[in-house]
Amino acid sequence: MNCEYVKCLEFFSGIGGLHYAFILSEIKGEVVASFDINTVANSVYKHNFGKDPITKGIDSLTIEDIEKYKANCWLISPPCQPYTRGGKSLDDKDQRAKGLLHLIDILPTLSDLPNYIFLENVLNFEKSKCREKLVNQLCLTNYEITECLLTPLQFGIPNDRLRYYLMARKRSNSFELKDIILPHEYLKNATIHQTWPLSSMLKKDYQQENHSEPSDTFLLSTYLEKLNGEEIKKYLVPEKYILKSFNFRFDIVLPTDHKCSCFTKSYGSHHIYSSGSLIQTKNLEFTNYNFEDPSSLLNLELRFFTPEEIARLHAFPLKSQVQKSCDDLLKSNYNGPYLEFPENISIIQKYRMLGNSLNCFVVSKLLRYILFL
Ligand SMILES: C[S@@+](CC[C@H](N)C(=O)[O-])C[C@H]1O[C@@H](n2cnc3c(N)ncnc32)[C@H](O)[C@@H]1O
């Protein structure tokens, strides 16, 4: 395991998913500064980490703004809309890609390039122009790159959230010029790994530390809160949302299931189709759903997952952990920081921020066993 003290810059920090993942990876180091323009997410970040993220747009950061932290690691989770159909798939032409493109441009101009770079994004990023530009720059500046597409289901967590991850390590200066991999060669032969552990991994360290890998994904019930009648009412899906959903096969799950679908930032709103699963709380024996007759679904008392349940599925450290799964997620000596929302944050704002965030457990493993190994 790497012994160097790691000083991270966290770009597009949101509620700090990458910061939690870094802490959970137990790598020696700290996040020295974070950057985000969303004031609501920043207030949550400050509440939990005691430090304000920098609100200057990442697309206008100067070399000095970055160099003054003397960081040797960049953690990056840029907006995903440029690569999604909902966001019109404009890729590098999308305004929301400007921050990432700026970081790619600024990288070779730094006097000290970061030794480590981690990036998280959605499926389809791997086919984008932005990824091509990033990989090009990383090859030209002499980084060794690992890319993968993984879902928490592969880690025993019953939530599907297929995401693209890139890990890049700076090669030492003694690396011979003739051994530099040219961008077009890299792009021609690149493997996007899709299994965990990755086939390229040095598995020895991983196996030594992970004796009890989950053989199966855990039940959803492990992650659910015991809600009383009043609390359940707060999360019931309004009848009008269901009745309007003629022929939309939205995802209904039972507490005994081993999987729920990806929660997006529209979860909890009237977009009940494809924004995340709904839990059936009544008539659990009935699963032959007729989506052509939405009124037949009303007696199932469908409810939204609570923000706390989603945070738990995303493996954020919470004060009230109920799950027995991912035993090594929170070691008994873990004493924070935890994810908590300040009181003024509404439920819909919580859903939005959690939908934008990431799975801290998956990222912590990638940091520990790929980036910093
Ligand atoms: C996919 S989310 C990242 C969420 C984060 N990883 C988390 O765990 O919450 C992208 C974030 O980028 C921020 N953002 C978008 N454009 C930005 C820009 N130009 N400068 C700084 N932050 C930006 C958004 O406010 C949002 O919080």
UniProtKB/TrEMBL annotation:
Family statement: Belongs to the class I-like SAM-binding methyltransferase superfamily. C5-methyltransferase family.
PROSITE patterns listed in its UniProt record: SAM_MT_C5
PANTHER family per record: TRNA (CYTOSINE(38)-C(5))-METHYLTRANSFERASE
UniProt keyword annotation of Methyltransferase present: yes
Any one of the GO BP annotations: methylation
Entry keyword set: Methyltransferase, S-adenosyl-L-methionine, Transferase
This protein's GO CC annotations: nucleus
Active site, renumbered: C80
Thylakoid among keywords: no
GO molecular function: methyltransferase activity
Pfam families referenced in this protein's UniProt entry, alphabetically: DNA_methylase
Gene3D superfamilies: DNA Methylase, subunit A, domain 2 (3.90.120.10), Vaccinia Virus protein VP39 (3.40.50.150)
The protein's name in its UniProt record: S-adenosyl-L-methionine-dependent methyltransferase
Source organism: Rhizophagus clarus
Domain of life of the native organism: Eukaryota
Stretches of the chain forming a coiled coil according to its record: none
